[in-house]
Structure to design on (320 residues):
């Protein structure tokens, strides 16, 4: 089968790997410039050279047996490393957080920089509509994007799926990335302090190096209240919050930037844990996966995508 997956984050890539392993032809489409999503990394220029930041998720854990096996393979290939300071069983991507996604995408057909505005179905085939010409139709479509974005695509095809997406909003997050010319007198991780939800010394992570580099995530409540503030105002507020924790004026700043994540932390549609955490409409050959269907963890995205891929494989075998 020719299958289109909209979204090449952890969920979409996990689904694609399962489908491709069984011989299906998978094409992924993502509006980003490269692998990342909520595991994105970014470089800022400074007088000391480029500085790397894990601007999204800071670490992940593994409990599901399938995901545990995947993490072990990543560890063996050097794409992830334990980060004990974040807690028992915490892992990070090496040399940046998006390393596992890069490894997954390596042998997949991913069209980066492609925003899918809508999808249509005719004669049992799907067509994707974008600013660029897609040029082929598909036997099935998977939405592997945040709930708010999935709702837009699903609304014209499956009202139940769209309604569930609408009922599972994400929480926003303002993120500060800042590099200094000297270390801050702080532990490598700062949690739940004032408007700071989580702050990490990125330069202190395993496999990381360079000048003193920090990522600071504001709380969801503060981010929501200041969602439309200017970047400069947010930078100032989060810099002050970090300095307050350090108990001193900050060293000289080499580089600084703030990023607004509108859909930073997913909701949890599967709050009662009574279903598999993916959606599949066999009559339409339309699927949905993502962390928002299970919970706001990287592992949940992988599990959701993998389970959807398995459900689709089973459907196509039975339909053959």
């Amino acid at each position: 089968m020719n299958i289109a997956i909209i979204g090449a984050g952890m969920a979409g890539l996990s689904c694609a790997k399962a489908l491709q392993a069984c011989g299906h032809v998978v094409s992924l489409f993502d509006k980003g410039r490269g692998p990342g999503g909520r595991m994105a990394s970014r470089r800022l220029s400074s007088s000391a050279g480029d500085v790397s930041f894990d601007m999204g998720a800071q670490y992940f854990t593994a409990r599901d047996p399938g995901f545990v096996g995947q993490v072990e393979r990543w560890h063996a290939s050097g794409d992830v490393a334990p980060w004990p300071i974040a807690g028992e069983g915490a892992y990070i991507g090496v040399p940046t957080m998006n390393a596992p996604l890069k490894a997954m995408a390596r042998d997949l057909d991913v069209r980066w920089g492609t925003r899918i505005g809508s999808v249509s179905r005719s004669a049992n085939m799907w067509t994707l509509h974008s600013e660029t010409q897609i040029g082929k139709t598909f036997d099935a479509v998977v939405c592997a994007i945040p709930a708010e974005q999935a709702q837009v695509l699903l609304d014209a095809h499956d009202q139940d799926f769209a309604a569930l997406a609408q009922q599972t909003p994400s929480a926003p997050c303002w993120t500060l990335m800042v590099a200094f010319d000297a270390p801050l007198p702080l532990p490598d991780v700062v949690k739940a302090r004032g408007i700071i939800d989580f702050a990490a010394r990125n330069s202190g992570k395993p496999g990381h190096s360079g000048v003193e580099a920090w990522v600071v995530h504001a709380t969801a409540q503060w981010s929501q209240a200041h969602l439309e503030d200017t970047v400069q105002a947010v930078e100032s507020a989060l810099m002050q919050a970090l300095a307050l924790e350090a108990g001193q004026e900050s060293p000289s700043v080499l580089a600084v930037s703030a990023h607004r994540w509108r859909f930073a932390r997913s909701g949890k549609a599967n709050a009662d844990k009574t279903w598999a955490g993916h959606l599949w409409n066999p009559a339409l050959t339309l699927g949905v996966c993502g962390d928002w269907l299970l919970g706001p963890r990287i592992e949940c995205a992988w599990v959701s995508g993998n389970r959807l891929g398995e459900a689709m494989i089973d459907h196509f075998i039975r339909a053959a």
